[in-house]
Amino acid sequence: MRQYTLASLFDGIGGFPYAASFYNITSLWASEIVPACVSVTRKHFPDMAHAGDITQLHGGKLPPVDIVTFGSPCQGLSLAGQRRGLADERSGLFMEAIRIIDEMREATHGRY
Fold first, then answer.
1. Are 107 and 64 a contacting pair, CB within 8 Å?
2. Is 55 left (phi over 0), alpha (psi -120 to 50) or beta?
Protein backbone atom coordinates (compact mmCIF):
# COMPACT_ATOMS: atom_id res chain seq x y z
CA MET A 1 0.00 0.00 0.00
CA ARG A 2 1.29 3.48 -0.90
CA GLN A 3 2.49 5.71 1.94
CA TYR A 4 1.00 9.20 1.57
CA THR A 5 2.64 12.37 2.85
CA LEU A 6 1.10 15.58 4.15
CA ALA A 7 1.97 19.23 4.69
CA SER A 8 -0.15 21.44 6.91
CA LEU A 9 -0.38 25.19 6.24
CA PHE A 10 -1.85 27.41 8.98
CA ASP A 11 -1.21 24.33 11.10
CA GLY A 12 -2.54 25.63 14.41
CA ILE A 13 -2.18 22.79 16.92
CA GLY A 14 -1.88 20.09 14.28
CA GLY A 15 -5.49 19.08 13.69
CA PHE A 16 -4.89 17.89 10.13
CA PRO A 17 -1.70 15.95 10.99
CA TYR A 18 -3.55 14.37 13.93
CA ALA A 19 -6.41 13.21 11.71
CA ALA A 20 -3.96 11.99 9.06
CA SER A 21 -2.15 9.88 11.65
CA PHE A 22 -5.25 7.68 11.96
CA TYR A 23 -4.81 6.75 8.30
CA ASN A 24 -1.06 6.15 8.42
CA ILE A 25 -0.36 9.38 6.50
CA THR A 26 3.03 10.85 7.34
CA SER A 27 3.09 14.58 8.09
CA LEU A 28 6.38 15.90 6.71
CA TRP A 29 6.19 19.61 7.44
CA ALA A 30 3.94 22.39 8.70
CA SER A 31 3.69 26.16 8.55
CA GLU A 32 2.57 28.01 11.68
CA ILE A 33 3.79 31.23 13.33
CA VAL A 34 2.13 31.09 16.76
CA PRO A 35 4.80 29.75 19.17
CA ALA A 36 2.30 28.09 21.54
CA CYS A 37 0.75 26.19 18.63
CA VAL A 38 4.14 25.10 17.31
CA SER A 39 5.05 23.78 20.77
CA VAL A 40 1.96 21.54 20.74
CA THR A 41 2.78 20.01 17.36
CA ARG A 42 6.47 19.61 18.25
CA LYS A 43 5.37 17.55 21.26
CA HIS A 44 2.95 15.33 19.35
CA PHE A 45 4.76 15.19 16.00
CA PRO A 46 8.49 15.42 16.81
CA ASP A 47 9.50 14.24 13.32
CA MET A 48 7.45 16.88 11.50
CA ALA A 49 9.52 19.84 10.29
CA HIS A 50 8.31 23.38 10.98
CA ALA A 51 8.78 25.63 7.97
CA GLY A 52 7.70 28.91 9.57
CA ASP A 53 5.84 31.87 8.09
CA ILE A 54 3.77 30.96 5.01
CA THR A 55 4.62 34.27 3.33
CA GLN A 56 8.32 33.35 3.40
CA LEU A 57 7.96 29.86 1.91
CA HIS A 58 8.46 28.70 -1.67
CA GLY A 59 6.58 25.56 -2.64
CA GLY A 60 9.32 24.48 -5.04
CA LYS A 61 11.93 24.49 -2.28
CA LEU A 62 9.91 22.50 0.28
CA PRO A 63 9.81 18.70 0.37
CA PRO A 64 6.98 17.71 -2.00
CA VAL A 65 3.93 16.04 -0.46
CA ASP A 66 0.85 14.21 -1.69
CA ILE A 67 -1.61 16.21 0.42
CA VAL A 68 -1.55 19.90 1.38
CA THR A 69 -4.06 20.90 4.03
CA PHE A 70 -4.93 24.37 5.18
CA GLY A 71 -7.56 26.25 7.09
CA SER A 72 -6.59 29.82 6.37
CA PRO A 73 -7.66 32.68 8.65
CA CYS A 74 -11.30 33.50 8.00
CA GLN A 75 -11.92 36.73 9.92
CA GLY A 76 -12.48 38.69 6.70
CA LEU A 77 -15.03 36.14 5.51
CA SER A 78 -17.09 36.20 8.70
CA LEU A 79 -20.55 37.75 8.73
CA ALA A 80 -19.70 39.05 12.20
CA GLY A 81 -16.72 41.01 10.90
CA GLN A 82 -16.21 43.78 8.39
CA ARG A 83 -16.87 41.38 5.48
CA ARG A 84 -13.78 42.37 3.53
CA GLY A 85 -13.46 38.90 2.04
CA LEU A 86 -10.07 37.95 0.64
CA ALA A 87 -9.12 41.64 0.64
CA ASP A 88 -8.68 41.29 4.42
CA GLU A 89 -4.95 40.76 4.99
CA ARG A 90 -5.61 37.76 7.23
CA SER A 91 -8.14 36.00 5.01
CA GLY A 92 -6.10 36.97 1.96
CA LEU A 93 -3.44 34.57 3.20
CA PHE A 94 -5.57 31.93 1.46
CA MET A 95 -3.81 33.01 -1.73
CA GLU A 96 -0.43 32.17 -0.16
CA ALA A 97 -1.55 28.55 0.22
CA ILE A 98 -2.61 28.43 -3.43
CA ARG A 99 0.73 29.97 -4.45
CA ILE A 100 2.69 27.34 -2.52
CA ILE A 101 0.67 24.51 -4.08
CA ASP A 102 1.21 25.97 -7.56
CA GLU A 103 4.96 26.33 -6.93
CA MET A 104 5.18 22.72 -5.75
CA ARG A 105 3.29 21.49 -8.81
CA GLU A 106 5.55 23.46 -11.12
CA ALA A 107 8.76 22.29 -9.43
CA THR A 108 7.68 18.63 -9.58
CA HIS A 109 6.23 18.87 -13.12
CA GLY A 110 2.77 18.07 -11.77
CA ARG A 111 3.76 14.94 -9.86
CA TYR A 112 2.88 16.59 -6.54
1. yes
2. alpha
Q: What single DSSP character describes residue 44?
A: H
* Contact (Cβ atoms closer than 8 angstroms) between residue 20 and residue 5: no
This prediction has a pTM of 0.84
Q: What DSSP element (H or E) covers 35?
A: helix 35-44
Domain-located, residue 101: yes
Tell me the average confidence (pLDDT) per consecutive run of 10 residues in the chain, 112 residues long.
94 96 97 95 97 95 96 64 62 82 96 93
In angstroms, the CA 98 to CA 108 distance is 15
CA angle in degrees (0–180, nearest 5) for 73-62-30:
40
- The answer to whether residue 95 sits within a structural domain is yes
Instruction: Determine, yes or no, domain membership for 52.
Output: yes
Residue 94 is part of a domain; what is its CATH number?
A: 3.40.50.150
Instruction: Please state the domain count of the chain.
Output: 1
